[in-house]
Structure formats: C-alpha cells, structure tokens
Amino acid sequence: MNVLENFNHIQDNIQNACSKSGRNPREINIVAVTKYVSVNRAEEALQAGITHLGENRDTGLLSKWEKLGDVPEWHFIGTLQSKKVKNIIDKVSYIHSLDRLSLAREIHKRADKPVSCFVQINVSGEESKHGVGPQEAEGFIRSLEDYSAIKVIGLMTMAPHTDDKDFLRNCFRTLKGLQEYIHSLGLPHAPCTELSMGMSNDYTIAIEEGATFIRIGSALVGND
Ligand SMILES: *Cc1c(COP(=O)(O)O)cnc(C)c1O
Questions:
Q1: 43 lies in which domain range?
Q2: How many other C-beta atoms are found inside a 10 Å radius of the C-beta of residue 40?
Q3: CA nearest 21: which of 172, 134, 143?
Q4: Ligand 1 mean position to 30 CA, how many Å?
Q5: What pTM does this model have?
Q6: What is the separation of C-alpha 208 from the centre of its chain, rounded to a whole number of angstroms?
Q7: Residue 31 domain flag
Q8: Counting atoms of ligand 1 from 1, which one is nearest the CA of 215?
Q9: Whether the CB of 216 sits within 6 Å of ligand 1
Q10: CATH of the domain at 179
Q11: Ligand 1, closest atom to CA 218?
Q12: pLDDT digits (tens), the chain, 224 positions
C-alpha cells in the first residue's frame, strides 16, 4: 500500500474515533514513525501531507535529516542515551522520552532554545518498559524546574503489546488523568496539555481517551 492510501484510511479511523468521543480531529497530530523505512518512504509521507516524522535512534534521524532537513518537524520517540543528545538536539522539535534527571541535565546543557518534551510514563508498570512510574511523576516533573531548556508539554506512554482493549483503554485513561492533574498544578515549566499515546494497533482507543499526538509506523509507512 502506498503511504497516501494508508494515510487516508487512518484519517477515516481518526474521524470515527473522534465522532465517538466528541472530539475534533484537528486536535490529533499524526507522527509518522519512519524508523523501519527508507528516506524515500519518509519523503512519500511528506508528499502525502504528513508534517511530523518520528525516529528512535540518532543514526536514523541524522541520515534522514541529511536529505529532508527541517522540512518535517522531527520527533525523537525512543530511549535516548544522554551521550546521544548532542547529535540530535538542534534537529528535533519534540522529545517524547524524557524519563530521568541525567537526561534533562544533558538536554538543558546542549539545547540553545527550549525543547518541547513529553515525560514518558510507565503506566502499566512492566519491567521492560522505560518511563517514570505514575507515583513518581509529580516529583520528577517538579524537579525539572531547574532546567530552563525543558518545557514539559505533556505525557507519553507506550502501552503493552496486548489485544486486551479494556486493558489498553485503562492505560490511556490513567495517563489522561495524570496529565490533567499535572496540568492543574499550574507549573510554568510544565503546561502539560498534550498526550502522546497510541501506535498502529491501538491509536483509535488512544484517541477516544484523549491522545493529541499519535505515533504510527507500521500502519502508515510500513515496517520493512
Ligand atoms: C516504533 C514505535 C512506534 C510505532 O510503532 P508501530 O506499532 O509500528 O506503529 C511508536 N512509538 C514508539 C516509541 C516506537 O518506538
């Protein structure tokens, strides 16, 4: 399938999920996750009208950036090692995986302008997943106040791989509750209005539960 066909199909699904939940499709930003595919495929996504691209490794981001430059808005979506921050920091508009102070310190040190960050939350408490536990989130976000380059625009989660829709819905609902709570604290460095949640298998549920950024790889640009 070409990217445009996939994109049209996804937009229909977004429309349906929005109608079901009384939301406006304009609130949903689609990040095309191009980590599995070539730069040509990424370019096809831009031609289809997608403006946000996501990568989870510095090398993948840099090789595509060399060709596409700042035409797309770049999202760093994966585990980010502190020593890699300097390679990507002047190229990305968003980092979705802020989960520790050492990383915040490095971003602050290397960035020349504020970076829109999502704090990654491990909602389901799976051992293998990165992210801050829901109980630690407020303390962690308060401690980011010292790093003026970090702007906490929202929370992000990766739901577990499961077909259990109720379980997924619960994860997303928990994240939404936490996002609203952090937002209500009125912290100047953490407006926390956004929710990055939903991937190829679960984005319609994520939208019904309040996602504002969905990160789609396989279903949009493919995975080979
Ligand atoms: C790979 C990846 C995605 C996209 O996964 P698909 O299931 O292919 O849509 C989204 N978010 C993160 C953090 C990823 O690493």
A1: 3-8+38-221
A2: 8
A3: 172
A4: 12
A5: 0.97
A6: 17
A7: no
A8: 10
A9: yes
A10: 3.20.20.10
A11: 8
A12: 799 999 999 999 999 999 999 999 999 999 999 999 999 999 999 999 999 999 999 999 999 999 999 999 999 998 999 999 999 999 999 999 999 999 999 999 999 999 999 999 999 887 777 899 999 999 999 999 999 999 999 999 999 989 999 999 999 999 999 999 999 999 999 999 999 999 999 999 999 999 999 999 999 999 87
